[in-house]
Amino acid sequence: MTSAIQVTPRGYAGPGVRFGVPFLALVFALVVGAVILRIAGNDPAEAYRTMFDSSLNGWTSITRTLALATPLILTGLAAAVAFQMRVYNIGGEGQLYIGAIAGSWVGLLLPESMSAVVMLSAMIAVGAVAGAAWALLAAIPKAFFNADEIITTLMLNFVALSLMNYLIFGSLSFWRDPKRTVPGGKRLPDSAIMPSLSGRLHIGIIIAVVAAMLLWWLLRRTSWGFQVRTIGDSPRAARYSGMSVRLKTLTVLGMSGALAAIAGVSEVSGVTKGLEPRALATDIGFTGIIIAVVARNNPLGVVPVSVFLAAIATSGSRLQSIGIEVEVVYLLQGLIFLTVTAGEFFVSNRVGLRAERRAEADGGIPPSAELARGVS
Amino acid sequence: MNESVLVLSIASAVVASIPILYAALGEIITNRSGVMNLGVEGMMLVGAVVGFWAGNETGSLTAALIAGGLAGVGLALVHALLAVTLRVDQTVSGLSLVIVGGGFSSFVGTSGEPGLLSAPNEVEVNPLLPQFMQDLPAVGPILFGHDIVVYAGIIAVFAATWILNRTATGLSLRAVGEDPAAADAAGISVIRTRYAATAIGGFGAGIGGAYLTVAIVGTWQNGLTAGIGWIAVALVILAGWRPWLALVGALAFGGLNGLGFTLQLAQVDVPSDFLKMMPFIAAYLVVILVSANPGRARRLAAPAALAQPYAREAR
Amino acid sequence: MTTEPSRLEVRSLTKSFYGVPAIDSVDFDLRGGEIHGLLGENGAGKSTLCSVLSGLYRPDTGTVSIDGSPVQFRSPHDAAQHGIGMVYQHFRLVDSFTVAQNIVLGLRRGTRPKSIRQAESMVGDLADEYGLHVDPTARIWQLSVGEQQRVEILKQLFRGAQILILDEPTAVLAPQETDRLFEAVSTMVGKGHSVVLVSHKMAETMQYTDRLTVLQRGRNAGTADTANSTPADVAKMMFGDSRAADRREVTTAADVGETVLSLSDVCVTGDSGLAAVTDASFEVRRGQVVGVAGVAGNGQRELQEAIAGLRPIASGSLEVAGTDCTKTGPKGSAKAGLAFVPEDRLGVGLAPGLPLEHNMALKNHDRSPHSRFGVLSSSAIAKTTKRLVEAFDVRGNRRGMRVSLMSGGNLQKAILARELTEGHDVLLAAAPTRGLDMAAAEAVRAHIVDERAAGRGVLVFSEDLDEIIHMSDVVLVMFKGQIVGSFTRESLDVDAVGLLMTGSDPTVVSPSGSSIEIDLTEAPDETLDVATISTAEEATA
Asked: What angle do CA A176, A138, B279 make, to 5 degrees?
């Protein structure tokens, strides 16, 4: 007699499960992280305390965390809106670069004397349009030939990266500052830099949070969102009820690209203050995808998840002082991604032990065919 | 003549293609079982750092490659657990792997005293074939001047082709990737096959990473692979999941870096960043062409059940 | 036939899911060299029993013995080792592989041929031996459904199956292919194999089996020699008493009014790029139910989709309530007054993962009162849902619950509720009672008949001939994408309909003029019972 693991799909997951499971997953990741720290000869408690202090304890820490959360929120939203329709835009990374390129172009092009409001609006608008257009490179083949957008958007990331590198490292382009010996971007004029709220925190965070609320409202409270959610659940039911799947594919991917591009504008204008490929290419787009998944594609969920991940990322700054390498933070971040995404299985399935003789390891999970089909 | 730029750059292109080749071959096997693992870059990084560490400890190329390969397997099994058993979205799981691999490799690379970052390479890599063959004009350096890993990689291409197309194991593997329900009904364990194929993918990526550090670059730096894992992913698509086409593609992409230099000599100015885009643009175009023309492009199409989780009841 | 020893013996087998027994203390035995029919309504436990026998499920209690010795299957592979081969209704073949590759797939070392060439010649020999002709080198996607079925059977025979379980083997076959199948089955039986024929088609069961066992609500309702049974007996075992009478409702024809749906020379292209519907012309008028009979896969789905605007009309024209809807798409057809109850309830009619409220507003979410200037009013949607749920007695919904957790009957009622309260002139209903239990099916039919009484037109598609006959004022027959017959209530000739459905020309078999008129209220008992049974059966599909 051995016990076997029994898995049954959960029809409905209550809030206890929906919030409890990710929390437990997080705790699990932290425990594993502690074990690794211990093996590496460090004191996990001290490490975690230092990490907390440098990311969430005190106003300066919090502003740094929020500054880092800003682009994550935007790329998280970019992924969330596409995932709502089950369109897998994993091109946030590249769309962000395109936004940064287009936004900084506008900032460098328009006269310096222009008012900041007009300047920043123009940068955001042009950046968003460029990002949307870049996303359409995948959306159009998707809408018309059903070309797999996972691969097209993924591939376009690296094209955008090489393009950005070319503009700074590979040529004397409009973006590059010819006076610098180490290749770098021209500094944006003051009117093209997002005003600081406090320390590193700039108004990008407000844009990001407003975007989250707006997106939530669009998806939940408008007939546009109604259609997006219907298509996400069942494209055939959507077509049956007269919705245009093709048009929505174009608009949703376009919107997704625009949001990621705004993250790029926000970074280039609020953080790097010029087109700096090295500082921009830090997996913000990829992280946004994982954020969206953890937030279950809910725009309002994207904000706290992004802040939390940003907190982890900033938490390394003082680790050096207690003799721990900053890199442990990346490790921890990765562990959290893995455990939390794995946790989704336990949200959608009920897993329990069942005492039965069952030698087959790869065994099936047999709920009745009749019941599973839901036939009365 | 064997010192000429052209010969040397072709010879170095062959060597540069090897990490891509191993990673792509592994990914082909993984994909053919229906598992999409976008975490190649992460697995390569882990293989690279662990391989470098093992090489430093032992001075042995074999030890470095095996350690690197096994490190890749370890990470791949995490993906298998998530994607196959827990049926997490494979794209998300793969991307997580990239981030985990990057984090883990940087962590390992900086840990300990002295860290690997400043460590010299202790592994000696020697050409396999006798000196007189290496001295042959042109073909010597290009074909006969390489180490065992290069030749093993080419043998692996033929082995993979033969196994996939000519053996019962290959038939089972492809069945799992094309139609897991049919494979299951025929008595093949879908779960076991997919775990095994994912592990092989990790082994390939790990070896590729280890070879990169101990045989090509010779040092460890954070993020050392610099997108080679992604090139491998693109190459798998471009090659239509066929090992021998992956060999052709790997050689082409391995040559891209050297190509910029050669073109400059030939007074053709193609910026290297544009050359770097090529694999990705090509893969992007191939995906669109295959979708737009599904009948004619059937041979280049992805395994039918790629990236689809399988549960016996879900039919 | 003399009593032969049992090849397979099942004693008091029980298997429950979530505490609900799907089969309950079932006894069953299969003799050597017999064809044994396993009958039962949808949900009676046939598929559960087969899944236990083929090693997919493990029984809770009870025993299975083969040739007198008890066995326990841990997996389908295990069952195959004991000589049990299952041929599923949905084939488990790898499309891109060849016939021979599929057949040797998964065979362990020692049992598998040394090379693919050898496999091909062995498969060829086996195919000849059993009369299951198919090219071993052909790829599965190149084969017809009937050929694919032969591959499945060959696969089991190749693995040494002595006991074959055929799950609804004729559901997907054309009549000629059905004949060929049963020829092969009798060859197998002649060679000592035993065959379990899972079916809910009375006619073929009576014609081809030696014995039959009927399951009813998970219990064995009886086993009998086929030769000594009448369809009426079997029907009684399947449905219990007082079943047949329910179906014999008298339908009153309302006043027939203007045309609300008209098709002229409509041609539609199928997914494969070939013509799926050719020159379909007919009309539906107010107060009229037009029923389209036909074996599944003869262009019905494509025609439905074309009428609903989901599939482009290649040539010809379509009018809904006087509006030309040839090229207006799903919105155009709906706007002109078409209500559509699609074949696939979940996935087309309803978005499975979204709550009932969302689904009830699926078609009119963008109109007042459900939304204004693109902004939804959730209170208006909730109000509509409440009204519809009450009016159509939709049960089993909890707030926020995904609709896929509701039962089939309630899902269908929900769709009807949504479709029938919009201002519409004509209802298009596809397989409206498929898979429903009897009470739910009755309720759905009542709603459809009410539509006629309310002076609207109805076009109903069903594979269930009895249902078509008893609801329709006009019966159309569809075969290979064409309307091959049209009958009014007065001219209705059930035999002719049956022949047309299978592609035969009724004028050859029964000369014109001698058509038998069927009295719907006083049908001869046996005819009716057979027909009734052939109805309930479509349920599983």
From this structure: 65
CA B226 to chain centre: 13
Q: Measured between CB atoms, which of B168, B187, B315 is closest to C77?
A: B187
Asked if A367 and A8 touch (Cβ cutoff 8 Å), the reply is yes
> Which of A259, A146, A155, A157 is closest to A211 using CA atoms?
A259
Q: Comparing A320-334, B136-150, B220-234, B269-283, which segment has the lowest mean pLDDT?
A: A320-334
Q: Based on the domain organization, do A292 and A334 belong to the same domain?
A: no
**CA–CA gap between residue A185 and residue A182 (Å, rounded):** 10
- Contact assessment for residue C178 and residue C170, using Cβ atoms and an 8 Å cutoff: yes
10 Å CB burial of residue A267 (0-12, 13-18, 19+) is: buried
Same domain, residue pair A253 and A277:
yes
In this structure, how many other beta carbons lie within 10 angstroms of the beta carbon of residue C61? 12
Residues A3 and A140 occupy one common structural domain: no
CB proximity A86 to C under 8 Å:
no
Residue of B nearest to A29 (CA): B100
Q: Which chain A residues are Cβ-neighbours of B277 within 8 angstroms?
A: 158-159, 162-163
Give yes or no for a contact between A365 and A18, defined as CB atoms under 8 angstroms apart.
Answer: no
> Which pLDDT tens digit goes with each residue over C454-497?
889 999 998 777 788 888 999 999 988 899 989 988 888 777 77
Residue C48 contacts B, CB cutoff 8 Å: no
Residues A134 and A44 in one domain: no
Which pLDDT score is estimated for B257?
64
Mean pLDDT of C123-141: 92
pLDDT of residue A265 exceeding 60: yes
Tokens of residue C167, six digits: 């799950």
pTM for the model: 0.85
Please identify which residue in the block is written with the tokens 């309930």: C536
**Residues facing residue C277 across a β-bridge:** C268
The mean pLDDT of B117-132, rounded to a whole number, is 83
Element (H, E) at A353: strand A349-355
CA atoms within 13 A on the CB side of C500: 23
CB of C348 closer than 8 Å to CB of A240 = yes
Question: In chain C, which residue's Cα lies nearest the Cα of B301?
Answer: C96
C256-284 pLDDT, tens per residue?
Answer: 889 999 999 999 998 877 788 999 999 99
Task: Give the distance, in angstroms, between the CA of residue A311 and the centroid of all CA atoms in the same chain.
Answer: 15
| Residue of C75, C92, C155 to mutate for B, most B C-beta atoms under 10 A | C92
Classify residue C75 by its DSSP letter: S
| Spatial distance between the Cα atoms of C393 and C410, rounded to a whole number of angstroms | 8
Unique residue bearing structure tokens 């100015």? B269
Identify which of C56, C330, C362 has the shortest CB distance to residue A364.
C56
Q: What is the DSSP string of C253-279?
A: -----SEEEEEEEEEEE-TTSSEEEEE
What's chain A's average pLDDT? 88
What is the arithmetic mean of pLDDT over C224-235?
82
Q: Give per-residue pLDDT as tens, C161-208.
A: 999 999 888 876 766 778 889 999 999 999 999 999 988 667 788 889
The domain containing residue A215 runs over which residues? 70-306
Confidence of residue B113 (pLDDT cuts 50, 70, 90): low
Tell me the helices (H) and strands (E) count for chain B, helix number first: 13, 0
Distance CA C354, CA A328 (A): 41
Radius of gyration (C-alpha) of chain A in whole angstroms: 23
Per the structure, how many domains does chain A have? 2
Q: What is the ipTM of this complex?
A: 0.88
- Domain annotation for chain C: domains and CATH numbers: 6-244 (3.40.50.300), 249-337+423-522 (3.40.50.300)
CA pair distance C220, C60, nearest whole angstrom = 17
In a domain, A255, yes or no: yes
Q: Which of A306, A340, A355 is the last residue before a domain boundary? A: A306
